[in-house]
Amino acid sequence: MQKQYPIGVLKQEIIKIYNSINQEIFGIGIKSQKIELSGDKAYIFATHKRIPALKILDETHRSVTANVDALVMEANKKMLKEQIEKTLGLKVKLVLKDYDPITEFSGTVIVFEEEFVVA
Questions:
Q1: Residue 42, strand partner residues
Q2: What pLDDT, on a 0 to 100 scale, did the predictor assign at position 54?
Q3: Which whole-number Å values give the CA distances from 37 to 44, 51, 72, 96, 113, in the listed order?
Q4: How far apart are CA 21 and CA 87, in angstroms?
């Protein structure tokens, strides 16, 4: 049985974890975010600040920066899963994430092992 949280607290805690991981990886937080919870899923939509060096390289070496983006997203997803499980005691089945470097917008779906138990 999963831990119980008020829905507002759960949203805030997931966003805190999401933002702290971005700060750890990029040295900066996210510009804006929105989170929705439904059943056994959390949906996070966020606007990021692109690392200036990658933004410059995107113009002439997109294949290289695309590989860097993919590797960073894999690390981000792994860290997000681990931190949610450790901090909130909620079992995560998988994390899906995509990022568009042009708009600096990302979408993340966290699928939990069980539906949320809301206090």
A1: 37, 110
A2: 85
A3: 9, 29, 25, 15, 14
A4: 13
> Residue 113: what are its φ and ψ, rounded to 5°?
-65, -30
Asked whether the whole model's pTM tops 0.85, one would answer yes
DSSP 8-state class, residue 118: B
First-to-final CA distance of the chain = 13
- Residue pair 115/47 in contact by the 8 Å Cβ criterion: no
Place of tokens 């998988």: 94
Q: Which residues does the chain have with pLDDT short of 50?
A: none
DSSP-based three-state secondary structure for 87: helix
Q: How far is CA 47 from the centre of its chain?
A: 11
